[in-house]
């Protein structure tokens, strides 16, 4: 069961008219509210209209602000009724005839044109195969056409002929004249007007309401303007500290964020939501306020932000009488969130309540006014003020009164869905009967399905937690699943250690001392010391130091420049039991004295150059001469080993104390991690004063080897020589240091032989991957503050690892280390969410003499044993999906630009990818409130530095505008700190003034533009290089600039708003104007997209024709993918550019002639043509014909995703095709949805461009069909070039491509087909690299006779495209005939002798339609015959069950089976089975042996066979009809099936009365004999089934998806419950009529019910279902059906029964159409067939219970009650009248009331009420195909299978990323 909208009765209509009149009278006498405007009053734009006007002027080709509705009208439509109704509606509202031009100053004005005839177009789509789809496509087409606000119209009406007694009326409007609320008002008025026009009475829509212009005049009153200004100022104060919300789980924001959105649907538990509602009520809050608080908390937990803004849409119709005014009222309200402090949820709820109450009190303030007041800069793809939205529907789907009674017509609303979003994330909650449906709509550019799915689960857990503990601090609520908690537990722990006992540095450095005593231990320049010498010296110094008082826990400062001396002293201090403090002698004296005093060192050993006070100091030479002690005290593992001072936040350095145990553990573990080889060579480039040097210093001492020391300030060439000379195996460097070295020499020369350790700062991911790809050694990224003992985690750096973060991950914890990512409350954050890193397990002792600081940074570890500590690093990290840690920067250095969080590493990574940049640094500079990013660049040797403007342009292609540095400076070298890190503070900010200073206008054009800038921006003499927006311009000013320049520059150089935005300098804008004036290329159609190529080097020129509606830019990606020797010229068809709306789309042959002209004139070299989709292929083949006429040679013609399509030309077939045609009634929105589902990325392109594309595509498609039809009639101009079809493996538009590729032989003798794996229709947008390879190589291999090299077998299993077949003609090709062919590849089958034909199709279709009619008659008549013979309702019901149940069960299997076997044989088998079973029934009737059991058995088998017959025939149609006529053939078939279903009930009763059951059975048998004879006589063309899954997998897949998707499951359960009570109503119609009338009157009732179904189908075809709220409409229809059941039961009157059943049938068909629309738009294309079958089966599974149990048993129960309780009987007759069938009438009443009650109950079922918001539109096939290809490549699971198993439609988004 599936359904659509509510209609209002005449009495309700009258009451509404009276109420409206009362309100208008009240409005006239209420000065405080809107009133009719005075005669002649000037009308200005309302603030809401002004904002829309500006947006439209910015993008004149956009249809993003189009709204509308469509109605399908099924039935006899009175002549001119639609036109009369439309005129009445238009005359009722002045706004519909308005236009909005700009005055001479560029300001918008309103011009009313009362009395203007409405803009009504007519379209004939009667030949469409699917009328409903045709109407929806027409709706889509009209909706996508942009409006010209200046010349109008702003309202368009389209009357579409869909067939006989089948039409549609479609209306679209610019949002500037109405909003969604108004849309419904107009729809109601149109229905009412149409009803009156149908009845032939004058149209009277009641008292004329207030006009929107009255509101505009009222809003312009001074007191209203002052009120808004006060509100604006208040909003500005409220939002002054706003912060843009950046979710941690979101990807980095690209330069241009598309509006492509997906929606994740889920259900929130009703019981818990009811508790939340009760909690809100107890606080005086609404459910919205509670959800606002909950949403704020959820977002805060995923962003680490405490202040941000959430947006909410409001109707803004609080003015008196505004609910009946057509106009634009809707507004967006900012809801500031503040989570400061430590609030409980109850506290947060109170805050949310206060914010909401305050915001709603100012809902009248236009959002655009707020933006202007705040001077918000609009960034592409980023919503200003708020980036997330919230909508809560607390009322659910309340039934609204609407008059849908249209005389003689059945109405269906047409609907078109959009899959775009204007916000990063939007939460929508809808309360409905017993439930709460929620949805999260998100930008797929930023968020993945996996992330949003997890977010939804966390919302549900958060909901349960806050309801259970509303007084607990919000930070304490746990959102983890057990799986996530387990993952964090395993990720946070390093590997288990080896269990070796703890030791000291003394022990581990002495282990290798005796193994190679004579090998050098330390080499510093020309000096060296052997291992034996080093240890003897260290032992000697240990005794001398001991004599000087050095022992455990004493500290000795070591300030030696000589590395050998430093090594001896350090080891000596350690062996004396003391701890050493390394110092850099070059440090400032004050800093040295502070460290020495702070450390309370007992001694300072220096090189006789240190002059400091406050501590006992001794030169190294004096130490060597000092008196030794008799003994030394050996240190223990817990004794202090060293102290290293690091920078402090207060400016005072702090000493970090490290014990022997921890440093020994680290050295042991890192040696294993680095796979250290004993005896290796190490290089040390850093000072020993920093812990950065510890690794290289100790590794040779503890593993045996030689340490080579050099100055880190050497050049790259010197370092390369050093490493080569000493054959260095291991090296540690900072990434910036290594990058500096590689700018001079190749990276291979400055890498060690075995292992490189990168540390000290983040490693840019791209750079690190590049280094790894060229390295011959192992590379690890090491991370760890000094407090974690050198390092706590490492990550291998490998070339082939995909790292999305700008900085290489810091990896996993080392053995013995624990890493926690915690929030401010020390609670673990969720995977993917950023938090601060805490490290435990191996830590420093603390800060020397800083107990307060130590306790603050080294806190108790709450996750481990008592006494364990963890260190707060201050670094922001997050857990990656693989369990490693991603690094995001510092907590105390987070950069924000204009409220956006910026990771400097990401900007630096992008800047480093610019050609010529060797190294760069980006930092934030400027005073508070005027901060800006600055980039410092060290350019590669010989590279020419790019100007700032070019750098900004380069980065602007990759980064959002706010992340692009505005100023740059070149440096020769970066200043370095002592440990190798870049000293950012030492970088001087460059001068921001332009290098050339002020540049005055240099020509008249620049002067004109400069004058306009000066006047509008109030800037004296603006520089021609100054940025328009930097000078204070905004989008509104840009519209004024365009308006002012138009009369000054003339029409030949008109400038649009987007031109001003795209060329924001006077210089750039003037250059654009002059280029337009000089070029004179207004009619140019070829654009070269590749860089100019030397003719001598050019190997090929490709001319590419875009697909329907598209322009030349669609081949930009292909141009980039082509080799440098190939030129690509893309065709720009006239009428395809939205900025040139006055151009008309040209017919194919005219455009082909223009293209050929330019090819002959401009294109050189071997010529290849490529066309995509049917329009592109038509133009391409026409161009090939034209070039052949002119003698130009063509190397190859490639045609992608298309085959010829034509209209039948025979007299009979052409007439039938016109009757069933539908394309001219298909709406623009439908076509846009189809395009998006096929893979056209409409959401990513400009909205106006998308709308214009749809409009142009419709015309292109018509012209293409005209061209191919005419070509088949006249015969083409044949050419020698091969035609190569490029096919997406999963392209729904190229079904049967194996056969259809041969159709191109009408043009040539050679054809081939290339298949792209898993690709959809628009593969050129997603698979440009593969397409480039295909069109540059395939024809060359064919010419060489090397086709076999390109087959799948030869290309290998990893190939993503291959040559499927290459064929030549086996006979002379005649026009209009498909030739037989011969394959040039071994193993291929030559074409079959039997070819498709229209004659075959006509004969077979006639036979099958005749048999369908007969079986439908039998199915209708048999239950009725049983009831007339027995009077037993139970038998009647059981027989009815048999007519439906087999079809329910068999349908899903039949569809899968017929795709696997010979359809002709299946048709013959099914026809024979039907004929045999029907013969058995006939014999049983004639012999009088008909019994219940045998009748049910045989009839059930007939029903099963009929199901197989229908499915087999529908699948065989493409096999027997020429594919170019397939669309028309399907339309004819659908029309015939619909006629059969209507004829059966209309004539079945009469036939039963006159001929009896025997006559009907005999007719049925004869029809099958005829059908079988035709199929036996006709040979079917061969067709090879292509099945990738088993039958069981297909059936189970559909069931899995339907049951595992919460929203679809709820929908099916609802349908099952409704059908449980609907089927008794349907099944008891005939018995109820027979209870007081004759069999002939039963026929009348059945015919009327059938007519209701026809009308419902007609309305659905025209209307197409609602654009939104589809499920709500279905539930409203349920109420209509319940009320109609009451009408039918009211009296034993045929008219009442006919009226009730008529509306019930119409509503059922409407509902079915809406549900089909839901499935078709919401389910991925690859799954729709199975899901539709499963959904149909499950949604009607309760029908047999209604037929066989409720109907008969309910009637019996009512009869018993009436018989046993006389009072009950008398009450029944009093209410339902006297006469027969009152027991049945009581069943009607009961079922009707239960249906209505069920709708009311489901208002609380959130999954159902939020269905429309929760279920996202299906993703384009190409994205799913791309994911499938990647899954194949990576050995992953089937994408479709994952979709089925998850039941989550948003899984596609995750797989496509």
What does it look like?
By secondary structure, this protein is of the alpha/beta class. It has 60 helices and 46 strands. Strands 13-12-21-20-22-23-24-25-26 form a nine-stranded mixed sheet. A nine-stranded mixed sheet has the order 38-40-39-41-42-43-44-45-46. Strands 5-11-10-8-6-7 form a six-stranded mixed sheet. Helix 27 runs antiparallel to helix 28 and helix 43 (1463-1487) packs antiparallel against helix 44 (1492-1520). Residues 1-31, 396-403, 992-996, 1243-1247, 1584-1588 and 1851-1857 have low confidence and may be disordered.
Low-confidence stretches: 1-31, 396-403, 992-996, 1243-1247, 1584-1588, 1851-1857
Helix content: 40-55%
Number of strands: 46
Main sheet makeup: 9 strands, mixed
Proportion of beta-strand residues: 5-15%
Features:
1857 residues; 60 helices; disordered N terminus; 9-stranded mixed β-sheet
Map the helices and strands.
Elements: H1 10-28, H2 47-58, E1 66-75, H3 81-92, E2 119-124, H4 131-143, E3 155-163, E4 166-174, H5 180-198, H6 212-219, H7 222-238, E5 261-268, H8 270-282, H9 287-301, E6 307-314, E7 331-338, H10 345-360, H11 367-374, E8 388-393, E9 409-414, E10 425-432, E11 435-443, H12 449-468, H13 482-491, H14 505-510, E12 520-524, E13 527-530, H15 531-547, E14 555-559, H16 563-575, E15 579-582, H17 589-599, E16 603-606, E17 617-619, H18 620-624, E18 640-646, E19 654-659, H19 660-673, E20 680-684, H20 694-703, E21 705-709, H21 716-726, E22 730-733, H22 735-742, E23 755-758, H23 765-774, E24 778-783, E25 793-796, E26 812-813, E27 818-822, E28 835-840, E29 846-847, H24 851-857, E30 858-860, E31 869-879, E32 885-890, E33 895-897, E34 900-902, H25 904-912, E35 917-925, E36 932-939, H26 948-956, E37 967-970, H27 1004-1017, H28 1035-1049, H29 1057-1062, H30 1066-1079, E38 1086-1088, E39 1100-1105, H31 1116-1121, E40 1126-1131, H32 1148-1162, E41 1167-1172, H33 1173-1190, E42 1196-1200, H34 1211-1220, H35 1228-1238, H36 1247-1274, E43 1283-1288, H37 1297-1300, ...
Parallel strand pairs: 2-3, 6-8, 8-10, 12-21, 14-15, 14-16, 16-17, 20-21, 20-22, 22-23, 23-24, 36-37, 39-40, 39-41, 41-42, 42-43, 43-44
Antiparallel strand pairs: 1-4, 1-9, 3-4, 5-11, 6-7, 10-11, 12-13, 18-19, 19-29, 24-25, 25-26, 27-28, 28-31, 30-31, 31-32, 33-34, 35-36, 38-40, 44-45, 45-46
Helix pairs in contact: 2-28, 3-5, 4-35, 4-36, 4-49, 7-11, 8-12, 9-10, 15-16, 27-28, 27-30, 32-33, 33-36, 34-45, 35-36, 41-42, 41-44, 41-45, 42-44, 42-52, 42-53, 43-44, 43-45, 45-49, 46-52, 46-59, 47-50, 47-53, 47-55, 49-51, 50-51, 50-55, 53-54, 53-55
């Amino acid at each position: 069961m599936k359904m659509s909208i509510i209609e209002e009765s005449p009495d309700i209509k009258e009451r509404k008219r009276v109420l409206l009149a009362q309100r208008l009278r009240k409005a006239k006498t209420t000065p405080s509210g809107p009133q009719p405007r005075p005669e002649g009053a000037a009308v200005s734009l309302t603030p809401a209209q002004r904002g829309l006007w500006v947006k439209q002027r910015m993008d004149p080709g956009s249809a993003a602000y189009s709204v509308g509705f469509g109605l399908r009208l099924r039935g006899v439509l009175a002549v001119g009724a639609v036109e009369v109704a439309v005129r009445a509606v238009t005359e009722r509202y002045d706004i519909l005839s308005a236009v909005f031009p700009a005055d001479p100053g560029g300001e918008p004005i309103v011009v009313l044109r009362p009395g203007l005839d409405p803009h009504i177009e007519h379209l004939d789509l009667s030949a469409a195969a699917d009328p409903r789809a045709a109407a929806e496509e027409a709706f889509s087409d009209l909706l996508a056409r942009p409006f010209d606000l200046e010349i109008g119209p702003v309202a368009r009406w389209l009357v579409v002929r869909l067939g006989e007694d089948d039409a549609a009326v479609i209306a679209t409007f610019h949002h500037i004249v109405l909003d969604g609320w108004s849309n419904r008002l107009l729809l109601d008025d149109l229905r009412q007007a149409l009803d009156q026009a149908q009845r032939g009475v004058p149209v009277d829509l009641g008292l004329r309401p207030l006009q929107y212009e009255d509101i505009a005049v009222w809003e312009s009153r001074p007191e209203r303007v002052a009120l808004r200004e006060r509100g604006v100022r208040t909003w500005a104060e409220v939002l002054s500290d706003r912060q843009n919300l950046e979710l941690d789980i979101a990807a980095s924001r690209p330069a241009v964020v598309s509006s492509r959105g997906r929606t994740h649907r889920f259900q929130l538990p009703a019981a818990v939501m009811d508790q939340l509602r009760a909690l809100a009520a107890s606080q005086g809050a609404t459910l919205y306020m509670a959800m606002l608080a909950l949403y704020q908390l959820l977002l805060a937990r995923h962003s680490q932000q405490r202040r941000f803004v959430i947006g909410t849409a409001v109707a803004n119709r609080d003015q008196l009488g505004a609910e009946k005014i057509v106009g634009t009222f809707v507004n967006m309200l900012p809801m500031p969130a503040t989570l400061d402090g430590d609030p409980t949820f109850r506290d947060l709820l109170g805050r949310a309540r206060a914010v909401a109450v305050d915001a709603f009190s100012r809902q009248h303030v236009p959002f655009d006014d707020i933006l202007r007041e705040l001077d918000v800069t609009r960034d592409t793809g980023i919503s200003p003020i708020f980036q997330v939205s919230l909508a809560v529907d607390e009322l659910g789907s309340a039934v609204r009164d609407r008059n849908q009674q249209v005389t003689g017509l059945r109405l269906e609303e047409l609907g078109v869905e959009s899959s775009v979003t204007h916000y990063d994330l939007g939460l929508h909650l809808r309360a409905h009967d017993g439930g709460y449906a929620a949805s999260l709509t998100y930008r797929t550019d930023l968020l993945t399905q996996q992330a949003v799915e997890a977010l939804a689960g966390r919302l549900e857990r958060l909901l349960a937690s806050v309801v259970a503990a509303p007084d607990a601090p919000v930070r304490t609520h746990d959102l983890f699943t057990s799986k996530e908690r387990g993952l964090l537990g395993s990720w946070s722990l390093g590997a288990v250690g080896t269990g070796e006992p703890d030791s000291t540095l003394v022990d581990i450095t002495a282990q290798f001392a005796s193994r190679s005593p004579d090998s050098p231990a330390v080499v510093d320049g020309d000096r060296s010391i052997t291992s034996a010498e080093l240890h003897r010296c260290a032992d000697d110094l240990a005794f001398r130091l001991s004599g000087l008082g050095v022992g455990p826990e004493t500290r000795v400062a070591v300030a030696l420049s000589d590395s050998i001396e430093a090594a001896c002293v350090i080891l000596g201090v350690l062996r004396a039991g003391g701890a050493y403090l390394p110092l850099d002698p070059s440090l400032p004296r004050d800093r040295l004295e502070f460290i020495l005093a702070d450390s309370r060192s007992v001694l300072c050993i220096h090189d006789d150059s240190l002059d400091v006070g406050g501590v006992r100091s001794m030169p190294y030479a004096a130490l060597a001469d000092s008196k030794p002690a008799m003994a030394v005290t050996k240190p223990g593992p817990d004794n202090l080993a060293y102290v290293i001072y690091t920078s402090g936040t207060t400016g005072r350095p702090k000493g970090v104390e490290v014990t022997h145990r921890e440093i020994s553990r680290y050295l042991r573990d890192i040696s294993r991690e680095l796979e250290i080889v004993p005896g290796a060579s190490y290089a040390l480039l850093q000072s020993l004063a920093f812990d950065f040097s510890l690794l290289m210093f100790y590794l040779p001492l503890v593993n045996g080897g030689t340490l080579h020391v050099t100055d880190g300030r050497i050049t790259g060439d010197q370092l390369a020589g050093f490493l080569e000379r000493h054959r260095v195996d291991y090296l540690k460097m900072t990434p910036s240091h290594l990058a500096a070295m590689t700018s001079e020499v190749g990276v291979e020369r400055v890498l060690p032989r075995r292992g490189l350790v990168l540390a000290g700062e983040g490693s840019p991911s791209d750079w690190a991957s590049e280094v790894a790809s060229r390295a011959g050694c192992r590379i690890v990224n090491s991370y760890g503050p000094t407090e974690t003992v050198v390092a706590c985690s490492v990550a291998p750096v490998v070339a082939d690892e995909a790292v999305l973060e700008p900085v290489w991950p810091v990896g996993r914890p080392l053995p013995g280390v624990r890493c926690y990512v915690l929030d401010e409350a020390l609670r673990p954050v969720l995977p993917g969410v950023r938090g601060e890193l805490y490290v435990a397990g191996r830590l420093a002792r603390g800060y020397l003499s800083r107990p307060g600081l130590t306790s603050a940074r080294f806190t108790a570890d709450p996750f481990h044993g008592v006494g364990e500590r963890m260190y707060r690093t201050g670094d922001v990290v997050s857990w990656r999906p693989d369990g490693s840690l991603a690094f995001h920067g510092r907590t105390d250095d987070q950069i924000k630009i204009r409220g956006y969080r910026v990771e400097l590493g990401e900007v630096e990574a992008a800047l480093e990818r610019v050609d010529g940049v060797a190294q760069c640094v980006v930092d934030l500079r400027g005073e508070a409130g005027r901060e800006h990013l600055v980039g410092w660049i060290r350019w590669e040797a010989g590279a020419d530095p790019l100007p700032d403007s070019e750098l900004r342009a380069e980065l602007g292609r990759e980064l959002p505008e706010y992340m692009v540095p505005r100023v740059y400076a070149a440096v020769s070298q970066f200043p370095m700190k002592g440990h190798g890190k870049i000293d950012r503070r030492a970088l001087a900010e460059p001068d921001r003034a332009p290098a050339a200073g002020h540049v005055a206008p240099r020509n008249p054009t620049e002067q004109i533009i400069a004058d306009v800038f000066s006047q509008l921006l109030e800037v004296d003499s603006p520089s021609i290089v100054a940025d328009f927006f930097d000078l204070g311009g905004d989008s509104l000013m840009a519209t004024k600039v365009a308006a002012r320049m138009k009369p000054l520059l003339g029409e030949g150089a008109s400038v649009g708003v987007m031109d001003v935005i795209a060329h924001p300098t006077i210089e750039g804008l003037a250059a654009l104007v002059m280029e337009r004036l000089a070029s004179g290329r207004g009619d140019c159609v070829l654009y070269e997209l590749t860089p100019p190529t030397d003719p001598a080097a050019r190997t090929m020129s490709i001319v590419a024709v875009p697909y329907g509606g598209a322009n030349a830019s669609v081949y930009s990606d292909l141009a980039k993918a082509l080799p440098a020797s190939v030129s690509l010229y893309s065709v720009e068809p006239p009428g395809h550019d939205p900025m040139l709306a006055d151009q008309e789309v040209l017919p194919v042959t005219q455009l082909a002639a223009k293209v050929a002209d330019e090819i002959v004139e401009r294109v050189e070299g071997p010529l290849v043509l490529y066309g995509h989709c049917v329009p592109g292929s038509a133009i391409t083949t026409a161009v090939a014909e034209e070039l052949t006429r002119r003698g130009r040679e063509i190397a190859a013609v490639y045609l992608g995703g298309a085959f010829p399509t034509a209209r039948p030309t025979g007299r009979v077939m052409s007439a039938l095709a016109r009757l069933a045609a539908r394309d001219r009634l298909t709406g623009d929105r439908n076509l846009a949805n189809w395009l998006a589902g096929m893979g056209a990325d409409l959401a990513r392109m400009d909205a106006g461009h998308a709308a214009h594309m749809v409009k142009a595509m419709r015309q292109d498609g018509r012209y293409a069909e005209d061209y191919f039809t005419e070509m088949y009639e006249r015969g083409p101009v044949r050419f020698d070039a091969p035609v190569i079809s490029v096919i997406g493996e999963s392209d729904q538009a190229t079904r049967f491509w194996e056969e259809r590729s041969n159709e191109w032989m009408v043009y040539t003798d050679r054809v081939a087909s290339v298949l792209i794996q898993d690709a959809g229709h628009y593969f050129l947008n997603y698979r440009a690299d593969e397409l480039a390879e295909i069109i540059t190589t395939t024809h060359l291999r064919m010419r060489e006779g090397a086709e076999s090299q390109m087959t799948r077998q030869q290309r290998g299993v990893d190939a993503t495209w291959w040559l499927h077949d290459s064929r030549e003609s086996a006979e002379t090709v005649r026009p209009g005939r498909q030739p037989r062919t011969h394959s040039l590849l071994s193993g291929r089958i030559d074409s079959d002798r039997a070819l498709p034909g229209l004659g075959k199709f006509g004969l077979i279709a006639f036979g099958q339609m005749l048999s369908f009619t007969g079986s439908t008659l039998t199915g209708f008549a048999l239950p009725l015959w049983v009831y007339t013979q027995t009077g037993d309702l139970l038998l009647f019901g059981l027989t009815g069950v048999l007519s439906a149940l087999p079809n329910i069960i068999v349908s899903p299997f039949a569809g899968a089976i017929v795709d696997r076997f010979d359809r002709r044989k299946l048709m013959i088998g099914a026809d024979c089975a039907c004929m045999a079973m029907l013969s058995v029934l006939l014999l049983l009737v004639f012999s009088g042996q008909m019994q219940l059991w045998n009748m049910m058995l045989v009839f059930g088998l007939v029903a099963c066979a009929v199901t197989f017959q229908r499915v087999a025939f529908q699948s065989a149609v493409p096999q027997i009809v020429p594919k170019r006529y397939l669309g028309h053939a399907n339309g004819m078939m659908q029309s015939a099936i619909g006629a059969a279903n209507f004829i059966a009930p209309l004539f079945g009763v009469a036939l039963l009365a006159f001929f009896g059951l025997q006559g009907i059975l005999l007719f049925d048998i004869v029809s099958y004999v005829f059908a079988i004879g035709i199929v036996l006589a006709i040979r079917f063309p061969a067709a090879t089934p292509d099945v990738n899954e088993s039958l069981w997998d297909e059936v189970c897949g559909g069931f899995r998806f339907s049951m595992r998707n919460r929203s679809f499951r709820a929908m099916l359960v609802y349908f099952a419950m409704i059908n449980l009570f609907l089927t008794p109503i349907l099944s008891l119609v005939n018995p109820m009529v027979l209870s007081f009338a004759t069999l002939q009157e039963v026929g009348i009732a059945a015919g009327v019910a059938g007519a209701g179904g026809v009308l419902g189908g007609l309305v659905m075809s025209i209307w197409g279902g609602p654009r939104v709220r589809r499920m709500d409409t279905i539930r409203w229809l349920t109420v209509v059906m319940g009320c109609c059941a009451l009408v039918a039961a009211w009296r034993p009157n045929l008219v009442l029964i006919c009226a009730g059943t008529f509306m019930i049938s119409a509503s059922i068909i409407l509902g079915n159409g809406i549900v089909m629309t839901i499935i078709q738009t919401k389910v991925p294309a690859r799954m729709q067939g199975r899901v539709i079958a499963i959904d149909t089966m499950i949604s009607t599974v309760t029908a047999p219970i209604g037929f066989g149990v409720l109907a008969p048993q309910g009637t019996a129960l009512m009869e018993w009650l009436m018989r046993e309780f006389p009072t009950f009987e008398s009450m029944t007759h009093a209410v339902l009248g006297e006469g027969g069938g009152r027991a049945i009438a009581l069943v009607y009443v009961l079922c009707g009331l239960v249906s209505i009650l069920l709708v009311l109950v489901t208002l609380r079922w959130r999954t159902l009420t939020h269905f429309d918001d929760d279920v996202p539109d299906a993703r384009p096939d190409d994205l799913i195909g791309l994911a499938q290809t990647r899954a194949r490549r990576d050995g992953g699971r089937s994408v479709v299978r994952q979709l089925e198993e998850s039941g989550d439609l948003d899984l596609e988004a995750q797989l496509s990323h």
